[in-house]
Design a protein that fits this description.
By secondary structure, this protein is an alpha+beta fold. The protein is 38% helix and 18% strand. It has a four-stranded antiparallel beta sheet. The chain starts with a strand and ends in a 13-residue tail after the last helix. Bound molecules: inosine-5'-diphosphate and magnesium ion. The site of inosine-5'-diphosphate (IDP) has 9 residues, from loops.
Length: 143
Amino acid sequence: MEKSLILVKPDGVERGLTGSIISRLEDLGLKLVAVRMLQADRELAEHHYAVHRDKPFFVDLVNYITSSPIVAAVFEGEDAVSRIRKACGATDPAKSEKGTIRGDFGLDIGRNTIHASDSPETAGVEVETFFNAENIFSYTRLT
Ligand code: IDP
Ligand code: MG
């Protein structure tokens, strides 16, 4: 069973989309095993987005993700990482298909509503970045 980390970004929380986003992922049959609201500080944001440190948009990205509260969650299921990425749609909402989270809710490439882990390896690191082991739960998902 794979785990994946998602973040509802500030634009998602501010527009009251957290429940809808979590519902969409639950409706895929994925199991919600951890959830938490936080406001990321720069250290956490820079660590989370470290792979983008040299990109021209890095400062804007860190400013944005630290600007307002976010909701972090962990979903578990078979192929959770790739199924969640598919449900999110392309990074740029202008290019994501309707019916995807970013296609339906994303405002622009920065305010694209959701982050999701991009590989099982990344997911392992990202889950540990946002959650202690005792805050990740184990239970049986019915249906
Ligand atoms: P992803 O979120 O689809 O995995 P990444 O390439 O990992 O996309 O980029 C991380 C985040 O950085 C994106 O979700 C987006 O908000 C932002 N970003 C990516 N590329 C650009 C860009 O060219 N300009 C501004 N922001 C960008
Ligand atoms: Mg990424």
